[in-house]
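Q: I'm writing up a methods section and want to include an example of the input and output format. Could you take the sequence below and give the corresponding predicted structure tokens, formatted cleanly so I can copy it straight into the document?
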Amino acid sequence: MVDIADTSIVRRATGTEADARAPGTGAALSPLAGIPAAPWRALSARAIEPNAYYLPEWQLAVNASARGRVGAAALAAWRDGSRLIGLVPVVSMWRAYKIPLPALVSADPYGTLCTPLLDREMAEDAVTHILGEARRAGAHALMFRATSLDGAAMKAFTEVLRRDALAPLVLQSHVRACLDTTGDAEELLRDALGAKKLKELRRQRNRLAEHGAVQFEVAKSPADVTAAIETFLALEASGWKGQRGTALGQDAGDATFVRRATAALAETGQCEMVTLRAGEVPVAAAIVLRHRHRAFYFKLGVDERFAKFSPGVQLTLDLTRHLCADPDIATVDSTASPDHPMINPIWRGRLAIGDVLIPLRRHDPVVPLIRAALQLRGAIREPARRLVHLARASQEKSA
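A: Here is the clean output for your methods example:
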């Protein structure tokens, strides 16, 4: 019998022990840091659905030093002992939500996407192995935070669960902006913003040019990315994120993670730093990750002294043109919050994202308890979250 109130065996992760043991469950899972990088990279190349935030170069850097995100465990599916066919970084529900119930939760990769990596040649086999690993660890449910709801990965999980007369439970869902890059950029921008808004943005850009010629720069090489990340960190810390204390450069662990991750992904051609300058002065900069046919718009930093010229919007317009001209990219995930005031009017595509609870056994009485606890927590936190979101939206819109 599972004692769902017992939290004594939830342990803090170290370099050798993962913090993913659910209260009252069996043996701890393997540390995420113990997954070899080579088969992980090979799985990423074969992934049925892209997720740059679970690339090994990114997630291992997060796992090593990012604030509040170190020491995750791994639900890993192997074929013939050497081919990795599925991977979900996880933590305990206690670690994720301070809820003492026996469930595993997808680890926070700093970006807002936790879609699992599944081998496209054997996705359903991978799902079967992952669910079995979670059961053997003693979990009663598996929760994916911020997961693509309509993608191939969730379809594979749904099909495997259906065979056992189970079904995933969507706890909350929303849509966020994405960009279809297969069309003409100028036509896309005209359709999205209209002639009047584009004329106003051109006027602002001309005003910005009074401070120096406006240049859009793309850093791709490891050396250029390493230099450009410092510009981004300085810009981000100079604005409202710095005032709140949430800029990446303000925490040593976060700064170490993002420097390590962007440099490593630049080595594989999966990270670009984009910067907008007025003369020699950087006025906006952003991190863009790439995985297979999809790009991910991670974070944006702006010099708020130039806010009246909309530097964040100007950078995003140039980034839109840049990505639409890239034949290797078909879509771009904004990874932004719902109803984001800057990106939503520009990128009119929408991607369905949600938190999904996956029961691991039929008629398990613990699963309704897990669901109810999560819903209660959400109901308590939602008013505060909305206030924070409104404050952030007001600050971001001015950029």
